[in-house]
């Protein structure tokens, strides 16, 4: 995927993308990997005059994102969309002690497909999908795998069906965590990246594009 002059890059998803951004300021990039990516690209390629936007909202599930997709994505008409969503769907089930059903999984796939289909129909955006992820620290996060793994498989299916870029964050972060310690990348909850975690996500994103 090539980044062109005057491109608008949109990062959208949940708290992993949000990272404390000021939602009253549409240009605020938060304090996570979107800011790291923008800092790299805008400092290295000033002549490209890139616009980078963050529309992550902490706590969002896929259905929450679907409700705001028109205003926070389609109307913007971005050139590159990076989407990371899904872990909160798993998290809510775990908090509620609810097992993932086939019906819920079908709905997850349908909602995800809606996002990509509408993006394809309404824009010329190139798309980068990121896998939702969880690391096994604390130990109870191991119990999330049965739910989250099925959602990850849907994200991979969507990347194949819509011929998007795919960044396998679940594998990348878990491999790094095995090497360096899981909490080094996601602190004490297995989900929210530390500075090192955001750095790994940003570097993985940059490797997926042709600057």
TrEMBL record:
Database matches in CDD domains: SGNH_hydrolase_like_2 (cd01834)
Pfam families: Lipase_GDSL_2 (PF13472)
Keyword terms: Hydrolase
InterPro entries: Ester_Hydrolysis_Enzymes, SGNH_hydro, SGNH_hydro_sf
Keyword Hydrolase set for record: yes
Record-linked Gene3D superfamilies: SGNH hydrolase
Gene Ontology molecular functions: hydrolase activity
Limits of the SGNH hydrolase-type esterase domain: 11-199
Protein name: SGNH/GDSL hydrolase family protein
